[in-house]
């Protein structure tokens, strides 16, 4: 879980210079590949590294998706 906390601030800092949809897409791609690698892992260290990459993919969603949804959701549905 620590890898999510370490990586989490970086997508939020990069959002000023890169399209947020692209960052979310890259995070989704990293997360998908890491999940597939977790399924094909063969020992403890391979699943540990793949699980850390899952956290990197999740970090892009944690820092980017929530503010994006908050900005674009209708106010009537938030209450």
TrEMBL record:
| UniProt-annotated location(s) | Membrane
Q: Does the keyword Transcription regulation apply?
A: no
Q: Does the keyword Membrane apply?
A: yes
The transmembrane residues are 20-42, 49-69
List the keywords (alphabetical): Membrane, Transmembrane, Transmembrane helix, Transport
Q: Which superkingdom does the taxonomy of this entry point to?
A: Eukaryota
Single GO cellular component annotation? membrane
Membrane topology per record: Multi-pass membrane protein
Protein name (record):
Uncharacterized protein
């Amino acid at each position: 879980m620590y890898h999510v906390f370490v990586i989490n601030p970086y997508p939020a800092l990069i959002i000023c210079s890169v399209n947020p949809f692209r960052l979310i897409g890259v995070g989704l791609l990293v997360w998908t590949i890491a999940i597939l690698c977790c399924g094909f892992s063969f020992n403890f260290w391979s699943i540990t590294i793949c699980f850390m990459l899952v956290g990197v993919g999740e970090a892009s969603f944690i820092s980017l998706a929530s503010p994006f949804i908050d900005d674009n959701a209708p106010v009537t549905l938030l209450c």
